[in-house]
Amino acid sequence: MVEITIRKRPQTEAVITQRKFFKKTARGKVVKVLRERYLRDDVACGIQGCRECSTEIPEPLPFSGSLEHQLFSNGHYLLPDTNVFLAQMDLIESSLFTPPIILLQTVIEEVRHRSLPLYNRLKALTKSEDKSIWIFYNEYRSETAIVREENEIPNDRNDRGIRVATAWYNTHISLTRPPIRGQKQTPHPTVVLMTEDAANREKAEKSGVTSISVRKYVEGMKDANLLLDLLAADGSQEIEPTKAASGRQALYPDYLPISTLLAGVKAGELHQGHFNANQYNYLEGSVPVPAFDKPVLLVGRENMNRAVQGDIVVVEVFPEKEWKAPADEVVDQEATLKNDDAEDSGEEGDENGEEVFVKESRVLSESSSQKPPSERQPTGRVVGVVKRNWRAYVCHIDSTSLTSTLTTSLSTQTVFATPVSRLLPRIRLRTRQAPILLNQKILVTIDRWDATSRYPEGHFVRALGRVESKEAEQESLLLEFEVPYRPFGKAILDCLPPEGDQWVVPPKGEFDVQNIWRDREDLRDVIVCSIDPPGCQDIDDALHAKLLPNGNIEAGVHIADVSHFVLPDNPMDSEAAARGTTVYLVDNRIDMLPSLLGTNLCSLRPFVERLAFSSIWELTPDAEIVSVRFTKSVIKSKAAFTYEEAQIRKDDPNLQDDLTNSIRLLNSLAIKLKAKRMAAGALNLASPEVKIHLDSAESSDPIDVEQKELRETNSLVEEFMLLANISVAKKIEESFPQTAVLRRHLPPPKTNFEKLQDILRKTKGLSLDVSSSGALAASLDICVDANEPAFNTLVRIMATRCMLSAEYFSSGSVAKNTFGHYGLASKIYTHFTSPIRRYADVLVHRQLSAAIGFTPLHATLHSKSHVERVLDVVNRRHRMAQMAGRASVEFYVGLALKARGEQAKVRGEADVKEEAFVIRTFRNGVGVFVSKLGIEGLVTFKRDTQFDAENYTITVPGAKEDVKISVFDKVIVRIEVEKDKNTQRGKVKMTLVEPVDSSAL
Amino acid sequence: MASTSISKAEKSYIQAGLLANPPRRADGRSLHDFRVISLETGFAPLSNGSAHLSIGRNPHNGSGGTDIMASVKLEVESVEDDASDRGRIVCNVSCSPSAYPHLTSGALDDLQYDLTTVLHQTLSHPSLHPKNLSIIPRKKSWLLNLDLLVTADAGNIYDALFMAARAALWDTKVPRTRSVEYKSPKSLSSASGDMDVDQDTTSGFDTRNVAHATDFELPDYWDEGEILEGRERWPVAITLNLVKTIHFLDATLQEEASCASRLLVVHSYESPTSPTVQSMRMLGSEELSILNLKNLIKEAESYTNDMFSSFTAKLEDEDFRRNQKARERFGKRR
């Protein structure tokens, strides 16, 4: 008989091998969790050629360890403790740090418990190819598994587990390499425990385990000089205490413990939100919280309490009588803190600190005086940080903070790094390479910010290149806005059609092996054309229109069928989802999809057959929709026009061909569509858009800047895209009410407009009705100044700034009455028309394709939470991409202005002068907008002026008499590009020329 | 109690045996002997405390006997009134239908209700209430659910229930919590320098003690927690089965059926030597004189003392087995 035994664990053993723990749920319940642990004897050690463990490991650790370290000539493996990963992740990630690493399960779990972002980096690290890391599941190997002793705290238990594992490794190595008779015994490599915890090191030494601190280890490496810079500031403290560390006074109040914060937030006594620094005044920040209409204002260093832009902080709001209004002065960090010394800043009591303190408190007390109570907003202080949002920042080394500029000097110096973004504080870092890094853009990570230190402390990550070199500037832009710009990997490129650029639409019939023609409409004979900006390579959309026998018009919008090539859930799709959007910089484009698709296979080029997703309407001559249908199709575009070409063709009465007539037809419809949209209350918004003239494709040196010109044909394309988007939105919302990918624009809160309304009333006597988008559109139309045509645009730009940004969302996640698009005055909207450059459109394509029964919907698009998660990323990327684009324009405007200034000098003219409008007034300056260049600038005066905050005017002493300048006044400014002495940052500097010359002020 | 139907002849045979000198019982025990009691604590690892108890189980094949499983589950509860401020104890007894195959479901419900009432009333009495069931005063407290499941009944169900309850409560560990609170700093407003007299005065007349803590955390999620305060106090019950002038302990089902009344005496132990009567129940139809009752209670106390000391010893032994010994065994395994 067959004997069957059930291998049941005796309960007596289970009691000790079960791992029980409690978990507090979000709803405040306590749950007991039980994990069974089965111990095994075959968890492999991961060393190449080990006699006992299985040898079929893909990437084993080398047999003799690493022989490169000077302290361990017999070879060694590194076994890092948890604190190494928590504090020194940058070091481990460095490509110069290559010893074989044994990563314990205990360590991984502890890292995950302490910090999720670090855990994710660690996980990525274990997968990277240039590291040799072996994960050892020590908790599952019977020799290394340990049980918690009575009264042992978790940390001690884990430390003990790590030591036991290290000891086991060393015995394991010596046991599996017994001496062979007749051969000389070679010494075994050592497994070295690397930990920052001195107590753990001590215990390890006691039990005969070799241990070492990170700093000591790095000092013995061959690239010590480069690697020592990567050491986070954490480690330096215990080894070489800085001189006055003990005598330091706390500059900032301590944070409350995290549990207290959450309790306070729950009880409604504290408020949680994202910290936003004020870019005009480094001593001020704000935190928008749901409890108040206006954001909570934080004034002064102590109240901001070490919060950095983007951190999630918890604030305490002061009683109402202590509320303040935001300051109306420009306070520049560089100016106020110029003399601060990096070595000993933070020591309160020295003259320097005293000086800073006095200066800052002067600034604060002045700014808070006499403000109308209406402008007061909730004021408070930061009592804790829930989540730091620190990453690597692009910085310059502050040259004045260097003590020695000799390039040969390799001594460690403490220097300041000034981030490119004005929203960030200066970062103090210790480096040996300071003189070399001068005049370079570098990446710096913040490690910590102690209560005793005025500035955060960080460490150098890597250099990007010389300041103002295009490569460095571009990379720094991409990094600063977190744009993923790495080239596409092999796994992604493998998802492309194997034919590459030889891919064509197969002929209909038996040669169509892949069945591409299934359910596709043949629109190759339809007269389709595309209209795009000049030089456009990724043509997403094409149009057609023709008269029907019944007098109606058939109009079609044909969008590149990207979802045919980008299939759900493959590497290319995940990458596109992570990138979210194509990023357009002035001289570069960071694609969302590999360029084979973007600029070739999907691009609706003329004269070739391309797959498309078509939306075809029957419209009456008055542009009323009779019917709409969606179909996958094959088209063959007859022409690719630029806006200008299309415009010329349309306006030429001699041309009477089909193509031209269809453009005219489209145009007549577009005009009616637009009129209808405007009547429904759509806004005609404006944002400054400028065009950079590049000298030639190669040098890409900008030579001039001008405002973008808008033609009738721009509007033609836009109207039809809107029409397509709205029709598609209706269709997919109907088919997938829970997960349809839509786009909405929430109406802005009325309070956003308060200031603009006040300014308009006081300076021009105009009123702005913000009760609805239609009312706003109407009142914007009458905001005109007969003498100043640009005034209207200016008001529109300012009104646009008051609005919220549009966002993608999943239809099941929000209430149906919030679907609307405020700016377009449409009840429902989505993005369908640019799948090559926007990921949301790809999702919409998939949903529409399922809605018409062409393909089944992929399971992930049925899951509300998945759609939400993807759209969150896309929204963020979208915002970042816009900011990166804007920053890139700004950089080139700077370069162009510099070039123009030099040309002017050559011609013997004076400097660049432009007309500008005042858009904001400060106590010591004015904010201006140069409409011709589309740039905003700041004119600051060294002296205080008479400032009337109530009426938004300042009075400056002129040549003969005092001159009053108010918001919306037209002034003439001199524009120079000045290289900031300290930071090497190219900075547009503006000074008033008319009505007063402010260079003396 | 579950009426096992036995014939008159059987009944009088059992009674005659008990009254004989020396008394004769079917399993050869003397009047005051217990059957073998077996106990295991912590058998349900997901609960906060548990015990498995059986009386009279056949040691060879594990069959027969009264069999009870008890488990304690702690639940976080928001405090709504003053009563639950110190935490609550709720007992519930359920009987498996297989333990009482002869009962209809209605009768089974009645029985469960009866057992639950006796147990709940005794155990949730304020004099026994453990002090560490409060989490945050006036905000959160633990609700202790004690669930007992009767899987087999071979007589003496009350004693068994109380023993199982005591063992499970003994085994119960309350997770350690730390209340977190946010105190708004009063110094801020007073620093502005106004001379408000009635602000921030600490007066002896002010007896209010307003706690602001609203939430709590688990400082050590691995720790099982601390034992219930006063776990020695939990009562021990003894059922005296009365037949004419004599009484006997630990009746089997047949014996229960043949005696007309029973006296249940529950003692709790504030200190190991001086038990106090926690509760008492007279079950059955016969009368009992005060004098008789007094004697019986005195008798019961001495039985309970025996029971208490051996039971406590066993419980401590169980604790030792599950911690120290298991750990040693784990250590030796390598």
From TrEMBL, chain A:
Main localization category: nucleus
Subcellular location: Nucleus
Residue stretches of biased makeup (Acidic residues): 341-354
Pfam families: OB_Dis3 (PF17849), PIN_4 (PF13638), RNB (PF00773), Rrp44_CSD1 (PF17216), Rrp44_S1 (PF17215)
InterPro entries with a match to the protein in the record: Dis3_CSD2, NA-bd_OB-fold, PIN-like_dom_sf, PIN_dom, RNase_II/R, RNase_II/R_CS, RNR_Ribonuclease, Rrp44_CSD1
The organism's place on the tree of life at top rank: Eukaryota
Domain RNB, residue spans: 520-854
Residue ranges constituting the PIN domain according to the UniProt record: 76-202
Region (Disordered): 328-381
CDD domains: PIN_Rrp44-like
Keywords, sorted A to Z: Exonuclease, Exosome, Hydrolase, Nuclease, Nucleus, RNA-binding, rRNA processing
Family: Belongs to the RNR ribonuclease family.
Protein name: RNB-domain-containing protein
UniProtKB/TrEMBL annotation, chain B:
A Pfam family of this chain: RNase_PH
Signal sequence annotation: none
SUPFAM superfamilies hit by this protein: Ribonuclease PH domain 2-like (SSF55666), Ribosomal protein S5 domain 2-like (SSF54211)
Compartment(s): Cytoplasm; Nucleus, Nucleolus
Keywords of the record: Cytoplasm, Exosome, Ribonucleoprotein, Ribosomal protein
Superkingdom classification of source: Eukaryota
Membrane among keywords: no
Gene Ontology CC terms: ribosome
Domain Exoribonuclease phosphorolytic: residue ranges: 33-175
Keyword Ribosomal protein: yes
Region (Disordered): 181-202
Annotated family: Belongs to the RNase PH family.
Descriptive protein name: Ribosomal RNA-processing protein 42
